[in-house]
Design a protein that fits this description.
mainly alpha; 2 domains; extended; LisH domain-containing protein
């Protein structure tokens, strides 16, 4: 017979409760990610690999961070937990905070006054929070000529108003 602790839980129930708590706090995923990263590092081995991993301590550019955040958000939205856990150490994301949707849109210089921004926000509210990447691609495809989603004519050129892309397109 198992012994009970002061809260009335036996050893098995306590382990289950502890595991659930650690999983809900993200600790289990962090440990899995760390172990996969170490395993990959060990399997690759060799001097070249050691140099690559030791030289990767520099922070990625803001654009790379934004792209990584978009990819992670998409993976998590699709419940690609394994893929996410492999991608995080590969991209060295453990070392920095991922970016919010608002930060990404600001980085891309998408004006809060543009119809593109408003369409993104509207789609996010309508469809529940899907990934920003999926929402952006949906919005872009609806504005492209020949789109099957939107047959109306676009009369405004403010899709990229105030953005880096707008100044280059």
């Amino acid at each position: 017979m198992t012994t009970m602790d002061q809260n009335g839980l036996n050893g098995r129930d306590l382990r289950i409760k502890l595991f659930d708590l650690m999983k809900s706090k993200g600790i289990v995923d962090n440990v899995k990610t760390h172990l996969r990263g170490r395993l990959i590092n060990e399997l690759r081995g060799g001097v070249d690999n050691q140099i690559r991993f030791s030289s990767s301590t520099t922070q990625p550019t803001l654009l790379i961070r934004a792209l990584n955040a978009l990819i992670i958000d998409y993976f998590q939205g699709q419940r690609y937990d394994y893929t996410t856990s492999v991608f995080i150490p590969e991209a060295n994301i453990n070392d920095y905070r991922t970016m919010s949707d608002e930060e990404i849109l600001r980085l891309l210089n998408i004006s809060t006054e543009s119809s593109f921004y408003k369409k993104i926000k509207s789609n996010n509210e309508t469809n529940g929070h899907t990934s920003l990447l999926m929402t952006m691609l949906t919005c872009i495809s609806s504005w492209l000529p020949g789109s099957s989603q939107n047959n109306s004519a676009q009369t405004s050129n403010d899709l990229w108003a105030g953005s880096v892309a707008g100044s280059t397109l």
